[in-house]
Predict the structure.
Amino acid sequence: MPRNKISDLNNHLFAQLEKLNDDELTGEQLDNEVQRAKAMSNLAGQIISSTKLTIDAMKMAHKGDINFNDIPNMLNQDNDE
């Protein structure tokens, strides 16, 4: 399974922005890209929210507000990159 990073998300979003800015897109092609951009925007928002949750949990653990072991497994970050 690929391990994407926020920088990958930024690259995809900017690539989509470039597609939307293509003056040669018309009609159905443009409609398709607009729909794709909306879907990407929705997914990006979810990814950003999830990342923020992870960062907030890690900050709380570093401050001692919660124990690292109490952070659910889905929020733990592997250090094997």
In short: Helices lie at 6-20, 27-63. The mean pLDDT is 85. Residues 38-65 form one domain.
